[in-house]
Amino acid sequence: MSPDQPFRIAVLISGSGTNLQAIIDAVAGGDIPARIEQVISNRPGAGGLARAERAGIGTEVLDHRAFAERGHYDAVLAERLEAIRPDLVVLAGFMRILTDDFVTRFMGRLINIHPSLLPAYRGLHTHQRAIDAGESRHGCSVHYVIPELDAGPVIAQAAVPIHAGDTAETLQDRVQAMEHRLYPEVVRWIAEGRVALQAGRVWLDGKPLASPPCLEPEAAS
């Protein structure tokens, strides 16, 4: 991408937008060669909207409660996104399961961050489930989104140890701190053209990934 045609990002949120903020900061600091074109929330009053507005980024609320059918909502959302012409759509705490039609339409330019070391612990309540299972490690994964929930090819991960006495809340705090480091890094790789989805596999620097790189606890301490 040239300065006249920057890499264009759209971000979908539902809540406070801490991962959005990490990406905003990385763009503002010059670490991500891109521009965030729009932040769209399905919830009025989501904290991430204020974060975007403070950064001078356009925002929109598309309230899912105004739509009787999930497919209709996703079709309208897709139209809004296509008007933005994003090179990448980032799910940053967007708490909706997207329809297959929507995902297929944006396949290869739609990414999400999930709070587990995928493929372990897809779905919800990942921190408590990892503790209950007696795991020694937990973490987060950035992946391309495919129609199957939390099953898309993983681009990169970050890990944290699970300590004796951890609760879901204390573990979540450590994982979230890693999310704020990992997500901007992966967005940067994509904006730089280093990462792509080809034939259902993640390619990094011109080679298919055998396994996703993982930021280990020692590197994050």
From TrEMBL:
For the keyword Protein transport, the answer is: no
Residue positions annotated to bind (6R)-10-formyltetrahydrofolate are 70, 95-98, 112
Which top EC class applies here? transferase
Pathway given for this chain reads:
Purine metabolism; IMP biosynthesis via de novo pathway; N(2)-formyl-N(1)-(5-phospho-D-ribosyl)glycinamide from N(1)-(5-phospho-D-ribosyl)glycinamide (10-formyl THF route): step 1/1
Record-linked InterPro entries: Formyl_transf_N (IPR002376), Formyl_transf_N_sf (IPR036477), GART (IPR004607)
* One MF term in the entry's GO annotations: phosphoribosylglycinamide formyltransferase activity
**Alphabetic keyword roster:** Purine biosynthesis, Transferase
CDD domains per the record? FMT_core_GART (cd08645)
Site residues by UniProt (Raises pKa of active site His) = 150
Q: Could you tell me the superkingdom of the organism this chain comes from?
A: Bacteria
**Residues at the active site:** 114
Task: Extract the Pfam families matched here.
Answer: Formyl_trans_N
Q: Give the EC number(s) listed in the UniProt record.
A: 2.1.2.2
The UniProt record gives the binding positions of N(1)-(5-phospho-beta-D-ribosyl)glycinamide as 17-19
**Domain Formyl transferase N-terminal: where?**
8-187
Reaction(s) catalyzed by this protein?
N(1)-(5-phospho-beta-D-ribosyl)glycinamide + (6R)-10-formyltetrahydrofolate = N(2)-formyl-N(1)-(5-phospho-beta-D-ribosyl)glycinamide + (6S)-5,6,7,8-tetrahydrofolate + H(+)
Q: Which family does it belong to?
A: Belongs to the GART family.
Function in brief: Catalyzes the transfer of a formyl group from 10-formyltetrahydrofolate to 5-phospho-ribosyl-glycinamide (GAR), producing 5-phospho-ribosyl-N-formylglycinamide (FGAR) and tetrahydrofolate.
HAMAP family recorded = PurN
Q: Which NCBIfam families match?
A: PurN (TIGR00639)
The protein's name is: Phosphoribosylglycinamide formyltransferase
Source species, please?
Answer: Spiribacter insolitus
